[in-house]
């Protein structure tokens, strides 16, 4: 009887759990840090079409650039009991070219680590996530999501090497861009296709400014 | 209401509302696409065709051509179902990534339609019986070669206006696609 009484405290807890998906013992919001919001495409550029030209003189017109803002929900728990609900602020921008090339960028608050925000980019079927504070790559995915990858062993022969650097500036088509993230990869195992990127440059406040396909074709942003 | 009327009503309602009046009818095969129609698209399956971009890059397009049949369907079964034919040619390049689709659809012994779709741009639902006989045509010089009986097709897809690919096309039955004018001022022309 005493044992049963000891377990009585579980009754209100189970009742709380049964209240539905919205229940949690605590709720926490994570916001994108102000200094990282500067990586978003500036308001004056959002909605403005942009063009990129490749090294064969073919122009790609990107339109439909839009940015959306929201919160993604997550739940952590203990013994099936939700203890904390978290809401991570995120910004999403995307654009598509007249040849069907799609580029997307996510800015996520505290996605991989609590103390930093992440940038996610997607182009030509390849996704990369990186921490904006340390430039640690937290995710790499291509068509075959089981591909093994490394950020630490550049001389690897059995994995894809992926990395992110921050450049102080980069000049593209006679225009100099400050604070540029350079996403790049090396593919000793041959999983990346010729029409997938190996280098991608993203300028703070501007967006995609340059990328190179495995085939060697280089695309550069035009200024009008 | 008398019992007799009720029984009559109960008997009539299912007949009016639920029972099929017409039985499923025959399938009429309108016949395969004749050579005269097939020839308005001059591309051969598995052949490679070249076009030159206005900035000089030559693009290879692989042609894939096939014919499918389909059936009309009417819910009541009160009219015949027709077996129709559609011939599709896809011109596909890997770089730059372009897919141009040319369709010939035969609906009956008189009515056939011709359509070109280039990426997100669409040209026509052109009635073959009148378009190739009644439309204006001209001769045009492209890369030092004269082409005759050339038709101009205009993009009629306004839905994708923000990501438009092609504005207009020069086309003739002998050579097919002669020139594709892009929305951004560039073009692809037949490579002689």
Describe the 3D structure:
- The complex is a heterodimer of chains A (224) and B (192).
- Chain A is built from 3 helices and 14 strands.
- Chain A has 224 residues and is mainly beta.
- The relative contact order of chain A is 0.15.
- In chain A, strands 1, 2, 3, 4, 5, 6, 7, 8, 9, 10, 11, 12, 13 and 14 form a 14-stranded mixed beta sheet that branches.
- Chain B has one domain (19-190).
- Chain B contains 3 helices and 12 strands.
In short:
In chain A, about 10% of the residues lie in helices and about 50% in strands.
Number of domains of chain B: 1
Structure summary, number of beta strands of chain A: 14
The count of helical stretches of chain A stands at: 3
The chain pair with the largest interface is:
A-B, 19 and 19 residues
Radius of gyration of chain B: 24 Å
Give the rounded overall mean pLDDT of chain B.
86
What overall form of chain B do the CA principal axes indicate?
elongated
Cα end-to-end separation of chain A: 82 Å
Largest sheet of chain A: 14 strands, mixed
Count of helical regions of chain B: 3
Multimeric organization: heterodimer
* Overall domain count of chain A: 1
Radius of gyration of chain A: 22 Å
Low-confidence sequence ranges of chain B? none
Structural class of chain A: mainly beta
Helix content of chain A: under 10%
N- and C-termini, Cα separation of chain B: 86 Å
Strand content of chain B: over 45%
Q: What is the structural class of chain B? A: mainly beta
Strand content of chain A: over 45%
Mean pLDDT of chain A: 87
């Amino acid at each position: 009887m005493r044992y049963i009484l000891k377990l009585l405290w579980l009754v209100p807890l189970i009742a709380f759990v049964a209240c539905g998906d919205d229940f949690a013992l605590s709720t926490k919001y994570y916001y994108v840090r102000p200094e990282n919001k500067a990586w978003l495409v500036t308001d004056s550029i959002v909605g403005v079409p942009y063009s990129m030209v490749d090294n064969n003189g073919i122009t790609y017109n990107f339109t439909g650039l839009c940015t959306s803002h929201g919160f993604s929900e997550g739940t952590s728990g203990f013994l099936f009991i939700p203890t904390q609900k978290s809401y991570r602020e995120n910004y999403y921008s995307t654009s598509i070219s007249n040849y069907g090339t799609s580029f997307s960028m996510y800015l996520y608050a505290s996605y991989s680590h609590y103390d930093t925000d992440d940038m996610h980019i997607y182009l030509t079927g390849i996704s990369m996530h990186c921490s904006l504070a340390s430039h640690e790559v937290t995710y790499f995915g291509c068509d075959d999501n089981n591909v093994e990858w490394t950020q630490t062993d550049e001389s690897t022969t059995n994995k894809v090497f992926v990395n992110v650097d921050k450049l102080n500036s980069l000049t593209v088509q006679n225009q100099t861009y400050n604070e540029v993230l350079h996403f790049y990869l090396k593919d000793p195992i041959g999983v990346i296709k010729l029409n997938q990127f190996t280098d991608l440059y993203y300028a703070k406040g501007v967006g995609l400014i340059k990328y190179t396909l495995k085939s060697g074709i280089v695309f550069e942003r035009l200024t009008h | 209401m008398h019992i007799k009327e009720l029984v009559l009503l109960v008997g009539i309602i299912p007949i009016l509302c639920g029972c099929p009046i017409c039985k499923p009818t025959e399938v009429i095969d309108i016949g395969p696409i004749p050579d005269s129609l097939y020839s308005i698209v001059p591309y051969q399956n598995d052949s490679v065709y070249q076009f030159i971009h206005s900035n000089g890059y030559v693009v290879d397009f692989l042609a894939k051509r096939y014919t499918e049949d389909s059936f009309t369907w009417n819910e009541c079964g009160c009219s015949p179902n027709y077996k129709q034919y559609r011939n599709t040619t896809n011109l596909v390049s890997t770089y730059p990534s372009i897919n141009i689709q040319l369709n010939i659809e035969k609906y009956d012994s008189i009515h056939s339609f011709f359509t070109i779709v280039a990426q997100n741009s669409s040209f026509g639902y052109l009635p073959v019986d009148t378009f190739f006989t009644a439309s204006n045509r001209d001769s045009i010089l492209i890369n030092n070669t004269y082409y005759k009986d050339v038709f101009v097709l205009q993009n009629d897809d306004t839905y994708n206006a923000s990501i438009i690919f092609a504005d207009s096309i020069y086309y003739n039955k002998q050579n097919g696609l002669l020139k594709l004018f892009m929305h951004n001022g560039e073009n692809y022309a037949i490579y002689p």
